[in-house]
Design a protein that fits this description.
With 225 residues, the protein is an alpha+beta fold. It has helices spanning 26-33, 37-44, 64-78, 83-97, 108-111, 113-116, 128-142, 182-188, 196-206, 210-224; strands spanning 23-24, 62-63, 145-147, 153-159, 162-164, 174-175. Helix 1 (26-33) crosses helix 2 and helix 8 (182-188) crosses helix 10.
Length: 225
């Protein structure tokens, strides 16, 4: 689950800013990506003859940019992109985009095309066909992302009326535009069949519309599946 930022501060907190990054443990990353913990651990830990695809930038914990990056990794792996190719692609894009989290960069879909168009398997035929295949995979991942002035991910809207904003509740999913966690609402109501009177009471207590609460509950059901 998202954890308190102060628990993860280094010896000299003045050297790193943890504000606006969101902080997650491995269990919460797996939950939000709808992947098993063992799978996510496999991407973020060294294995025989292979470095991790991504290591948490917060001393074993994961930032919002890590979360967004691992979402891209998850889709690339689902599409059969080899692990070593993802690793080489990340290094290539780090230099091109001048960031150590290139999979959280707005230019991924366009700049990444030049590298990932020639991957084995689905994008084996490099050139325009391969480029279109890559963009078709990555652009839907970037569409619900809002980027800041530095072209880095700043907000992820994984579901209608739900946002993950690293500046709000340490990046836990909340009702869009509010500080009300979707998980809190799911703890107060039966997400699949909420009691009507309790549902209306929750709407009144948290000053939310029925559509906002219903969307929050639907999201919690979706990521719990």
């Amino acid at each position: 689950m998202p954890v308190n930022a102060t628990a993860a501060l280094p010896a000299d907190p003045g050297t790193v800013s943890y504000l606006g990054k969101g902080i997650y443990d491995i269990c919460e990353v797996a939950r939000l990506l709808c992947r098993g913990r063992a799978m996510v651990e496999g991407w973020t830990r060294a294995r025989a003859g292979a470095l991790p695809l991504l290591t948490g930038e917060l001393g074993g914990l994961f930032s919002f940019w890590d979360l967004v990056s691992l979402r891209v990794v998850a889709e690339l792996r689902r599409r059969g992109v080899p692990r070593d190719h993802i690793a080489r692609g990340a290094k290539h894009l780090e230099m091109t985009l001048e960031t150590d989290r290139p999979f959280a960069h707005e230019a991924l879909a366009t700049v990444g095309t030049g590298f990932f168009a020639d991957v084995a398997g689905e994008w084996e035929d490099a050139g325009q066909g391969g480029q279109l295949a890559f963009q078709a995979t990555v652009e839907p991942l970037l569409k619900p992302i809002t980027f800041n002035d530095d072209k880095m991910a700043s907000i992820w809207r994984p579901h209608e009326r739900v946002w993950i904003n690293p500046e709000v509740q340490a990046g836990t999913p909340c009702v869009d535009g509010t500080r009300v966690p979707t998980r809190l609402l799911a703890s107060l109501l039966n997400p699949e069949q909420p009691d009507e009177s309790a549902f209306k009471a929750v709407c009144d207590d948290y000053r939310l519309t029925e559509r906002q609460v219903r969307s929050a509950l639907d999201y919690e059901v979706a990521i719990a599946a």
